[in-house]
Design brief:
This protein has 336 residues and is α/β, with parallel strands linked by helices. Helices cover 40% and strands 12% of the residues. Strands 7-6-3-2-1-13 form a six-stranded parallel sheet.
């Protein structure tokens, strides 16, 4: 029987685990781990680190990364392919964008899995606008709902074909934000009918994806409920109106869109109805405090976590070099 998961996904300090980190992870049993630049030095080192993380908890815990491509790409050459920002790549691919983006994320999945990384925080289903904050805009797939959904499906398929968990984000939609939520709390003043028809609508076709990530935004159309991540009303809307039934993780709990200590933010997100707290940075004492605040997953979250893990896929048998050649042909307008 699976030991209850700690309601957190944690980063770690460096290229190898310290003895204190190892002991903490063994005791906390977090649902998973996430890697950043500080953890990524060489192929052999990354493989050893992902193995050590799983050994610490004693099971095949998912190891996450942000490998969107472009500016938000933790693994870079020579560890992995360098990619254009998604919006630029979509424009380059033109009418072949759907197939090209499926190939892109199939190749990304191959590179991740080879290093022991099996979960990627993509697709990003935020609908771009002219006013979308620059931190987000070129990470989007398009400015039309239909295009975002079409390419998002291809990105999910590329991950699944490559044996990597996709994570849909930022639910219920970040495209109207004109502030960087790493630094400030964006406020969205669009009316409810617009949100339901566009931003929220982008996520409804992905309601059955195993994992999703919240947005740190205030939506004034629903009253002063606070950031979606810590708002019981907004989490209920994600479940009810968008229909998302998978494991719901927060965006990084350390982002300054949220107020209070990290432990207080985590507790508020759990109380609102999030399943697991994503803690990307900070030191070990901060992780300890967060774990004390959030504890083990409640049974409903544990069930969703187990269902997410059960959706793990086996990579299909493909010739990656052939896929790269096919993608290059599409980029040059030589698609079939």
């Amino acid at each position: 029987m699976q030991r209850p998961f700690g309601a957190a996904i944690f980063g770690c300090d460096g290229a190898r685990l310290s003895s204190d980190e190892r002991a903490f992870f063994a005791d906390a049993n977090p649902f998973g781990f996430i890697l950043f630049d500080r953890n990524l030095h060489s192929s052999d080192q990354v493989r050893a680190l992902t193995s050590d993380l799983r050994d610490a908890v004693g099971w095949n815990a998912p190891v996450f990364i942000d490998q969107e491509g472009g500016r938000v790409q933790r693994l870079r050459a020579p560890l992995a392919t360098d990619w254009l920002p998604p919006l630029d790549h979509v424009a380059q691919l033109g009418p072949d964008a759907e197939e090209g983006m499926r190939l892109r994320y199939r190749i990304i999945s191959h590179e991740l899995l080879a290093l022991g990384i099996d979960a990627n925080c993509a697709p990003m289903l935020d609908v771009a606008r002219p006013e979308t904050h620059p931190f987000l805009r070129n990470r989007c797939y398009g400015s039309r709902l239909e295009q975002v959904v079409e390419i998002g499906r291809a990105v999910v398929e590329g991950h699944r074909q490559g044996g990597v968990f996709p994570v849909v984000k930022h639910i219920p939609g970040h495209g109207l934000a004109q502030m960087d939520s790493h630094l400030d709390l964006p406020r969205i003043d669009a009316p409810e009918d617009m949100l339901n028809a566009t931003d929220f609508a982008a996520f409804r076709p992905f309601a059955d994806v195993a994992m999703g990530m919240t947005a740190h935004l205030v939506y004034s159309a629903f009253g002063e409920t606070g950031p979606a991540t810590t708002s019981a009303d907004m989490i209920a809307r994600i479940r009810r109106d968008i229909g998302f039934s998978g494991l719901l993780m927060t965006d990084d709990i350390g982002m300054q869109a949220l107020s209070g200590t990290v432990a207080e933010r985590g507790a508020a997100a759990m109380e609102a109805g999030c399943d697991v707290i994503l803690h990307c940075n900070g030191d070990l004492p901060e992780r300890v405090a967060l774990m004390q605040a959030v504890g083990e997953m409640p049974q409903s979250s544990q069930s969703r976590a187990e269902a997410a893990l059960a959706s793990r896929t086996t990579p299909d048998d493909v010739d990656i070099d052939a896929l790269r050649a096919k993608l290059a042909a599409l980029e040059q307008g030589r698609g079939a």
